[in-house]
């Protein structure tokens, strides 16, 4: 049974509210607000400015993957589409806003190939995040998390290798084969260009490190500095927990995990305050900044969707004849 998107969104909002109610019952809301009111505005401003680098590195990486597939778009276009997708991705499960890229570029890049590039980005993001999680678990001596993160990384890597090498031979319906072939093309091309693959991984590592350093600055701003190593160890684990699509933008789950992981190094109200700041800088600030980009993309997106629907209808009529 598939839930309606609105029902899914409502359930995610409800779950987010429930988790925050639990968190604020354990950590008084007043204490968290007091910590935030006493923040160093200079450090917070610096952390805020780093937000610009997140979509920039994402745009550079995505443009590189498209170039490997033989399709060239400007960095400006890549950046604009990344920003346009951000508001939708922040409020929908599984970052559905990324589909805006596919429909916007439909007349220049096949939809299946664009979606393939999005899947490549997600796969690399998750694997790099798992590597950070392995490093964090090793740093803190969390053996169970180390085994889980390491196991997931190995399983994910093996799964991608099998997908690239044997995906074309999977017993799939004939109608799905061309679509799956397009999706796999991005993975195959990247795998056949080791230098480009390394560069994509480097961009991904830098992008995640920006988030880690941003969080480190937030701890300094709240006047309870946690070391960069401790932040680098705990944040990826918390982010990974937040990837499970049960709350809005991972809120609540990510914050609770961060409090649990760093409780020995800072007061709980400080950690929760940092978690709220992370959500603000990594999700809501880019989402608000992305609204003008989304408005510009929507008119063309609507025309593309209409054109696609008409093409599909024509194909159905031809098939009936």
Overview of the structural elements:
- With 321 residues, the chain is mainly α.
- It has one domain.
- It contains 13 helices and no strands.
- Helix 7 packs across helix 9, helix 8 packs across helix 9 and helix 12 packs antiparallel against helix 13.
- The longest helix is centred in the last third of the chain and has 53 residues.
- The protein is globular.
Fraction of residues in helices? over 70%
Number of domains: 1
Query: What's the overall geometry?
Result: globular
Q: In angstroms, what separates the terminal alpha carbons?
A: 33 Å
Pfam families: LPG_synthase_TM (PF03706)
Subcellular location: Cell membrane
Main location: membrane
Keywords: Cell membrane, Membrane, Transmembrane, Transmembrane helix
What is the structure about, briefly put?
The protein is mainly alpha-helical and 321 residues long.
Secondary structure: elements and pairs:
Blueprint: H1 5-26, H2 29-37, H3 41-50, H4 53-68, H5 75-91, H6 99-104, H7 111-140, H8 143-166, H9 177-191, H10 194-221, H11 228-242, H12 253-262, H13 268-320
Helix pairs in contact: 2-13, 3-10, 4-5, 4-7, 4-10, 5-13, 7-8, 7-9, 7-10, 7-11, 8-9, 10-11, 10-13, 11-12, 12-13
């Amino acid at each position: 049974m598939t839930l309606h998107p609105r029902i899914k969104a409502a359930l995610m909002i409800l779950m987010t509210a429930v988790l925050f109610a639990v968190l604020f019952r354990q950590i008084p809301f007043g204490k968290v607000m007091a910590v935030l009111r006493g923040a160093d505005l200079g450090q917070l401003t610096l952390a805020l400015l780093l937000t610009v680098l997140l979509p920039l590195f994402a745009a550079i990486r995505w443009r590189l993957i498209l170039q490997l597939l033989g399709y060239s778009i400007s960095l400006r276009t890549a950046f604009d589409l990344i920003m346009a997708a951000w508001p939708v991705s922040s409020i929908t499960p599984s970052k559905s806003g990324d589909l805006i890229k596919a429909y916007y570029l439909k007349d220049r890049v096949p939809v299946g190939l664009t979606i393939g590039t999005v899947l490549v980005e997600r796969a690399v993001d998750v694997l790099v995040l798992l590597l950070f999680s392995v490093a964090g678990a090793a740093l803190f001596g969390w053996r169970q998390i180390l085994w889980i993160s390491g196991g997931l990384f190995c399983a994910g890597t093996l799964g991608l290798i099998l997908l690239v090498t044997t995906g074309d031979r999977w017993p799939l319906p004939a109608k799905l084969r061309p679509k799956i072939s397009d999706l796999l093309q991005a993975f195959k091309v990247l795998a056949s260009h080791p230098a480009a693959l390394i560069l994509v991984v480097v961009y991904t590592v830098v992008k995640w490190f920006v988030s880690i350093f941003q969080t480190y600055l937030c701890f300094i701003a709240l006047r309870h500095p946690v070391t960069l190593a401790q932040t680098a160890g705990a944040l990826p684990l918390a982010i990974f927990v937040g990837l499970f699509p049960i709350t809005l933008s991972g809120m609540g789950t990510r914050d609770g995990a961060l409090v649990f992981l760093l409780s020995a190094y800072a007061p709980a109200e400080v950690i929760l305050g940092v978690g709220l700041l992370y959500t603000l800088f990594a999700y809501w600030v880019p989402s608000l900044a992305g609204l003008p980009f989304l408005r510009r993309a929507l008119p063309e997106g609507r025309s593309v969707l209409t054109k696609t629907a008409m093409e599909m209808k024509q194909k159905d009529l031809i098939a009936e004849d």
